[in-house]
Amino acid sequence: MRRKIFILAAAVLLFTVVIVAASRVNISADKVVGSFRKDVYTFMGNVFIDRDGEIYVETQLATATKGTSDWQSFITEGETFVRFQTGEATATSLDYNLDLSTGLMTGDVQAMIYAKEEGEQNIYIYKTDILKFDQKNEYYEGFAKETENATPELIFIDYKGDLKVDTRYFEYFGDTGMLNLKGDVFVDDFKNSRKIWATELIYDTEDDSFEGLNVRIELVF
Predict the structure, then answer these.
(1) Which of 49, 137, 144, 183 fits a disulfide with 57 by CB distance 3.0 to 4.6 angstroms?
(2) Sequential DSSP letters for 143-164
(3) Distance between CA 161 and CA 191 in Å, rounded?
(4) Tally of CA atoms within 13 A in the half-sphere of 159 that contains its CB
(5) 121 forms bridges with which residues in the sheet?
C-alpha cells in the first residue's frame, strides 16, 4: 500500500512539473497536492518558484492556478521572498498574475527597487501593509496599515538617499520618477535642504519640482 501511494505521489509531481514547465515556470517543493483533472496545485515546504528573467519566489506554501489555456497565477502564504525584474521584497503573502506580470503583496512588506543607473542608490520601502506592483509598467502602489484606533503606521521610503518620506499612501512611477503621496506626508529633502509637510504631494524626482495640498515648507540653511 505504501508503495502504491509513493508511486501515485511521484506521478502527480511529475505531471505538475511538466505542465508548469510548458508555461516556462519552474516550481519545486517538498510536497505537492493536486489532481490530474483539476487546475489547482498546492505546493508545501521549501517552495521555489522561478519564471526565468521575470520573477523568483521562496516560500513555504503556494497554490498555482491554471486559466483557460495556461497557468495564470500563484498565491503564497507565510513568509515570502520575491525577486522581480526591478527589485525585491519580503511579505507574508503574494498574489501574482503570470499573464499580466502584476503582484499584490501583503503583511509588513519591505521592498527594494533597484537603481537604474550605475552609482545611484536603491530605493527602500518599509512598513507597507499592502504593496502592488506592475512589472511591465514599472508601477508601484503602497498602503499603510490602519491600527485599531485608526492611527496608521506610516510607510517610510528612503529614495536613493536624497529623500526620506513618511506617508499613508504612495504611488511610484519608475519610468518617470514621479512620487504621488497622500496622508500625513512628510518629506525630508536632503538634496535641496528643505523639509515638506502636506496632506497630498506630487513630487517629480527628476527635476525636484512638486505640488501639493496644505503644504508647509521649512528651508534648511
Answers:
(1) 49
(2) EPEE-TTS-EE-EEEEETTTEE
(3) 8
(4) 26
(5) none
Q: What's residue 68's pLDDT?
A: 64
User: Is position 82 within any domain?
Assistant: no
Nearest-angstrom CA–CA distance, 45 and 29: 6
DSSP, collapsed to helix, strand or coil, labels residue 142 as: strand
What would the pLDDT profile of 170-186 be if each residue is shown by its tens digit?
999 999 999 999 999 99
Q: Is residue 26 part of a domain?
A: no
Instruction: Please give the average per-residue pLDDT across 117-143, as a whole number.
Output: 94
Q: DSSP letters of 98-140?
A: TTTTEEEEEEEEEEEEPPSSTTPPPEEEEEEEEEEEETTTTEE
Q: What is the pLDDT of residue 23?
A: 45
Q: What is the DSSP letter of 93?
A: E
Helix H, strand E, coil C: the string for 171-219 is EEECCCCEEEEEEEEEEEECCCCEEEEEEEEEEECCCCEEEEECCEEEE
Q: Whole-prediction pTM value? A: 0.83
Which CATH number do you get for residue 202? 2.60.450.10
Give the domain extent around 107: 100-219
How many structural domains is the chain composed of? 1
88 occurs within a structural domain? no
In a domain, 1, yes or no: no
